[in-house]
Amino acid sequence: MTRSTATAGDLPHLITLRDLAPAQILGLLDRAADLRQRFAAGPAPTALLDGRTVVNLFFEPSTRTRTSFELAARRLGATVVNFDIASSSTSKGETLEDTLATLEAMGCDAFVVRHKENGTPARLARHARRAAILNAGDGNHAHPTQGLLDALTIRDAKPRVGDLRVVICGDVRHSRVARSDAEVLAALGVRQIRLCGPAPLLPDPADFPGCALHDDFDEAIAGVDVVIMLRLQKERMASAMIADERDYYARYGLDPARLARAAAGAIVLHPGPMNRGIEIADEVADGAQSRILDQVANGVFVRMAALATLLDR
Amino acid sequence: MTRSTATAGDLPHLITLRDLAPAQILGLLDRAADLRQRFAAGPAPTALLDGRTVVNLFFEPSTRTRTSFELAARRLGATVVNFDIASSSTSKGETLEDTLATLEAMGCDAFVVRHKENGTPARLARHARRAAILNAGDGNHAHPTQGLLDALTIRDAKPRVGDLRVVICGDVRHSRVARSDAEVLAALGVRQIRLCGPAPLLPDPADFPGCALHDDFDEAIAGVDVVIMLRLQKERMASAMIADERDYYARYGLDPARLARAAAGAIVLHPGPMNRGIEIADEVADGAQSRILDQVANGVFVRMAALATLLDR
Amino acid sequence: MTRSTATAGDLPHLITLRDLAPAQILGLLDRAADLRQRFAAGPAPTALLDGRTVVNLFFEPSTRTRTSFELAARRLGATVVNFDIASSSTSKGETLEDTLATLEAMGCDAFVVRHKENGTPARLARHARRAAILNAGDGNHAHPTQGLLDALTIRDAKPRVGDLRVVICGDVRHSRVARSDAEVLAALGVRQIRLCGPAPLLPDPADFPGCALHDDFDEAIAGVDVVIMLRLQKERMASAMIADERDYYARYGLDPARLARAAAGAIVLHPGPMNRGIEIADEVADGAQSRILDQVANGVFVRMAALATLLDR
Question: Which intervals hold domain Aspartate/ornithine carbamoyltransferase Asp/Orn-binding (chains A, B, C) (predicted)?
Fold first, then answer.
């Protein structure tokens, strides 16, 4: 295992990848790859975070991401508390800052936060006394561990990252995944990032500096090495002037014919959960070019790396 | 402790007891009894499943069974994830197969599945790549660990299993417990199994080969060594042409007078939760012949045995 | 660390502080302080409760108290099961006593119980076979660990407890916190306890022997060393003939001007969650005299002491 000399440095919180220097991003990816290798031989729990407590503060439901963080923390020996918002003090009128201060006073060391409003994790980071805040997705702002796990998955399959052409297709405008992916891929120096979707779902170009915008998927996918498909929230279709799911699939679904327009050996990613038959065909989701389950596997290691880095102070 | 030479053999999943050879069933019972002895001296956690992850995938609420599996897994050193269906990807349109694949990719080793539809655990077992599936109850099809814990409880009290006459009383038609009990008791070679309940709640005889059907409980209980009472779902009463709970209790409730018709020293089982005063009298539930709390205690050891056997590959 | 010779003695359950001798209370406070010192150096998990199982049985939502007990138990090495009442057998008509017996049969060692009805934890304690019951708040009856953590916080700041004048202000009539605080402070021999609130929210004096009642907060706070503010349930305001939140704050809110009427160096406590701007001003809640986060921190250690004492049999 060669290891770059990059380190994640002194990172107090993980809110958005825009805050990180490329060397810090590389440091996190390398640490994730290291942890993956250590666990490859089978169960090999480390005690790195023994006695530390990680709180899952999920204001939006997400079993997938919550479970990934929970497994990451527990594999490192941490205690995990799943904070039940519905029955919490927050629902009794306590401010979110007081909830944070209370849990910090109980000895909690890290907070994994998902919230529908942009900026909630950053706001908590400003109020934290000593705990680390990890953004697990806020509004359409950022989802940094998703960006990191996508980057690790891409680097595994295509190590010459500087040569890559990447397309991100779907509801880019409302996607925190697209933002974090574009940030991490720019930091890693990919050759080109194309964003594709129905015009009403394309973002303000200022949010994605250096990226090209397309509303024709056949054109956007031509010659790319990496295809990142996004989940379509069904309630967005109307505003995107899409008639129905069949119409969306015809224009923006990834089927084998369309994938054949990408470069030979192109890989396919999707953050999940997938709408099969809407944004992606079964043959692609389950096909040889899919790296969707690798993303999931890498997600746990990236989150272990992030927790270890933030709590190893 | 004598131990039979029976082993559970190479068991990939535990879906129904019909799939198991008698030697495999005996192997699981012996392993449960072994684990019980090891833990009898007080807390003595084993590290057999250290670093392994068990997921509770409960699509029907059941704190009792879920907690029993959770304690079993944790006593063996495993990490347990309670998957919250309500806030899960499955509720966002993800297929159950994709949920399984995702959790497997995160490194989960076993899935304890409860579902209201017959066949869901078997369907997941066909799609599992390397994880073990344990059926914790599907529809009216099977509840194999309940069958095993009932068998262990009966064998503890009445080791000469070949001599036993057993009655199962209640809504046999809709009961997965009755099916798994009948299967395990047939495999252990009991002398006679009688099924008793209101005629509309008696099963198709083809589902219970070799069992005798009765709608008169006084007749069915005469001379038996084991009485297994089933929980009455109140919503079934109408279809069973039962006027009310008092009527049911008068005809099918187990009270001391009725229990006196069984063989001397007969034991009483109930899978819980009990409807006291509907299917069972307080004096019987709490009496000397009740083995109901032994069932609960044995449930944890049987589930430890099942998890250890399935994951010890 | 000097340690009093007090011990908690042979305590089977913790239901109300009225059951405890002063020496037992001092024993619990000393044990909490000991544990705090051991954990001060950083993560230092003890294995005192290794292999033991603690069940959180919360029939009223309370993430704060539940999490505090959960962390306390896990830091001592215990396994914690959060019993989900909504999907439990209790909701299927099982008696609470049967739920307790079932979980005891599964090997659970302690039950942390919160219930809206007075006396539920005591009732469970009468039915427990070998498990310990810890009251985490029942109706307006008792919240013994809150009383203990308040006592520890007060003793830390003001070791000459016999000299102290204390005021408890708010809806004293409906407060289990007020009752447990008054009991523990009386046992520790404080000089004076004053109770203050709108007349309809003042308690029957027989419930608080030896305490003085006031409906004028400016008068009640004069010269006290400790101010314990209670949370106002908004639905109580009407019955208390309070016009609105501003009216309450004007008469019973703790702001810097009012706090200045207390003795120099007086400390402020609040059990949380706080209604800022209703019963307490931001400047006080976050000010130098506030011990509110110390209460939270001490809560975990008091609960560790209680669990260790009850289970160390």
Answer: 163-309
